[in-house]
């Protein structure tokens, strides 16, 4: 127990210690200020601008910015879709995997373009190395970059006074990739390979089993497969870009994706590094650091609450695991104890619970343990974190702009209480902003509840669930929450590769990604036009503990109340069945 | 419409540029660095002794013989992956079962019975939980120290060696926590078994 607390404390301390300077660095890069990589990379940057025929100083209006994102995402989708369909005849395919079915290719392409990385396939069975590299790895990078660029468009909207422009999308995209995501990924992937993550282009390795496996038909299997591929390069960006799609089926639980306690620590920190840094960048670039710290504090408090709840539920295990006191589930120096179903021995309960919390708080979605095998309440926490809209640090860029949506909602509610026109960061919040904030805050809930409601009524979906009763409903709810939060983690027992689920989840992912994104850009465009209002004694401070408390309250109010009925039928019902 | 017309060509070229940069140059650079500096690790940490590949030190194998150290419970799939000749090979997968249901209670009971039967020396002791559960990857190469120690009396008897000798082998293939803090203490099951067979020295 003490060790767990020390582990959690240290991990968060390292995270913040890295995020503060990185936040400053990102802020400089996005303002076009000089950084230590400028000398090395500016020729490449200029070459890209010349090829794209853009003027980096151009200030796009919000519509142009939005259309640029739309066009870029459209081509990204088409490229990836075609690669997945045609991978059977494309190069770098030593295992000879076939092209994907159109519905699975659609689902996978939408999933990666929207930074969700939901996976209805198993990487080692249905992906060629070409698809992994030129298809998926690319979208891991650019979908994260798109999310971050929107955040900066919004920041510029707050900073600018009576103007139109939000910056140049193409320049933002290029800078984020060249100066932030690629250098960090090179660093992380080399560290991961040093721990044993595979990185090659060889065919899968076959090894001799010491003890042959006898199948149900009586056949003797004497060999096992060790899968290969360009894994580390994709895993680094899958964590840093809050993507989360595993190169292999069991994601970061798989030892060749995450072999040691150190690789686990590196990946855990990578999951939250950019979302946390962006809080500090936000404060820096709007020239009021306290605003960034306030949003960071609200997120950290929610994260710690969720972390303690998950850990406590998983460490206590279930009565079924104890099997009338014949199994030892105590946490000691020699064993992790607790609910070890679906968890790896090297991570135990502490590191698995921390990962489950981080990955669903950030819209990452990679897993190092199987969430389907969590205890009812332990599995409900990740579920709720996705349902409140991925705003507890959330996706790269998208988490923070979602949180700002909630902040706008909070100042509005607070403004109503005292009867003043609400303001945020010196800009008046009026009808248009409120409409958009409502879309941002409610889109996720609507998509999740309508989606899982419909799915639960479709007879074919019944065949996809792996468990029965309340837990089966939770599997469906989890799938739609994951798609609806652009998270991508799964209760992996659900056999999700069916035409209905591929299409419906694909549509949900696209809606919850692009509608709030367009809404936030229109807020940004509107904000840029407004004048700054002076701070008076009547202005609600948005950086004190009062505001942080209110913000947490509003998030829980919207998130928790929308989902209480669904959660009662799923995990809560299962909990009461469990204790008998 | 005018906005789209000017954005589409840029978007097309941008996707090409970043595919080249992030999808070709970057992964090849990392492959090059990895093969140069960490070849054995980048190629899957294969244990190869006198030309025989016994497995990856990072992937678990199923052991059910009483003379071997047992690992996590494995669901072995033989249909997912094939070798170069198209013959089926073994590959572990997770259970994805809820640990709270009736079905699960029955499963654990059956696993407990099997383990108790194989370890009569430990009749009075509770079984460490990792021995009755399937791992997250389905191919966990490790078990906890308690789970390994639980099996020492049986291994000593079946192998005609002292308990101290068996413990010595287990301790040799035990990894501590990173910096004494992060992760859990683990025993590598495949390595212990290769050592017990005298293959790994």
Condensed summary:
The complex is a heterodimer of chains A (580) and B (201). Chain A is mainly alpha-helical and 580 residues long.
Description of the molecule:
Chain A: It is found in: Cell membrane. Chain A: GO terms for molecular function: P-type potassium transmembrane transporter activity; potassium ion binding. Chain A: Keywords: Cell membrane, Ion transport, Membrane, Potassium, Potassium transport, Transmembrane, Transmembrane helix, Transport. Chain A: Its main location: membrane. The complex is a heterodimer of chains A (580) and B (201). Helices cover 63% and strands 4% of the residues of chain A. Chain A is mostly helical and 580 residues long. Chain A has a domain at 2-206 and 225-285. In chain A, helix 3 (62-86) runs antiparallel to helix 4 and helix 7 (169-195) packs across helix 8 (232-240). Chain A is globular. With 201 residues, chain B is an alpha+beta fold. In chain B, strands 6-8-7 form a three-stranded antiparallel sheet. In chain B, strands 1-2 form a two-stranded antiparallel ribbon. In chain B, a hairpin with a 2-residue loop joins strand 1 (46-49) and strand 2 (52-56). The longest helix of chain B has 36 residues, at 2-37. The termini of chain B are far apart. The interface between A and B is large, with 137 and 111 residues. Strand 3 of chain A pairs parallel with strand 5 (127-128) of chain B.
